[in-house]
Amino acid sequence: MVSQISQSVALVTGLVLEVPMVPDMALGGNSRLHWTKRHRLFQAEKVAWYELVYIACNYDPGIPHFQHLNLGVEVVFQDKRNRDQDNVMHALKALFDALVQLGVMPDDDTAHQTTTLTITVDRERAPLTILRMEEA
What is the count of structural domains for the chain? Predict the structure, then answer.
């Protein structure tokens, strides 16, 4: 019985999700969209992230809850275009808001989240975002 409990706790302390989506770079820091178009795009992107992460979490072990989340994000793009990490991180804001809305973390500020970003190019796996979540 104790070994079963420790195995389930080990599953919840670290979780890796593969989401078949990359952030829309029109939401990056260098976007020149009108604010109304940007807002609509942001809301649609947040709903898409919410639904995809919700589906991925509900298979096993369920939606995790972290007080301080160490989040490793690997974004797999299809092309070798040069991408600024700050712009990609800015475009991931909809993902962070969706994680808060799901209850994965209390807030997306620096007191509750530490994020590392890796950008990869792989034509066969793209588009893909890999989320590695663990308690700090």
Answer: 1
